[in-house]
Amino acid sequence: MKRTILPYNPKLKQLARKLRNNSTKSEVILWNYLKGKQIKGYDFHRQKPIANYIVDFYCSELKLAIEVDGESHYGNEFKDDIRQKEIEKYGIIFLRFDESEIYFNLDGVMKVIENWVEVHSKAHTP
């Protein structure tokens, strides 16, 4: 798959760093399973700025964004939908999980991610 250069707002660099340093418990739990190329050799990044937004986790090789919806998302579903549609214009696919899924069904969450990667990585080599 050809890599696309995504729009980047350098003003978000500090905020992304702050978010990485102040991750929610559910983000930390999921990150422990995504980091270090543990998912079929694919490299994920935390708090990745894309255009004027920041996604929780991102794999550029797969153009996959993973979002963990916690307290900051409750009541902001309309904004999240606009944000997601804007980012999807760049060919990025989203997988969204509620933080309660991370706490109470981590195996199920990982199966969804691994199955998605398995299906979509057939045409790629990391």
**Strand order of the biggest β-sheet:** 1-2-3-4
Helix-residue proportion: 40-55%
Strand segment tally: 4
The helix-and-strand class reads alpha+beta
Supply Rg.
14 Å
Q: pLDDT average, as an integer?
A: 89
Outline the biggest β-sheet: 4 strands, mixed
Instruction: Measure the end-to-end span.
Output: 10 Å
The poorly predicted ranges are none
Tally of structural domains? 1
Describe this structure in words.
The structure is a single chain. This protein is 41% helix and 20% strand. The protein is of the alpha+beta class. It has a single domain, classed as 3-Layer(aba) Sandwich (Endonuclease, Chain A), CATH 3.40.960. Strand 2 and strand 3 form a beta hairpin. The chain starts with 12 loop residues before the first helix and ends in a 6-residue tail after the last helix.
List the helices and strands and how they pair.
Blueprint: H1 13-21, H2 25-34, E1 45-50, E2 53-59, E3 64-69, H3 77-88, E4 93-98, H4 99-104, H5 106-120
Parallel strand pairs: 3-4
Antiparallel strand pairs: 1-2, 2-3
Outline:
This protein is an alpha+beta fold and 126 residues long.
What attributes does this structure have?
126 residues, alpha+beta, 4 strands, 41% helix, 5 helices, Endonuclease, Chain A
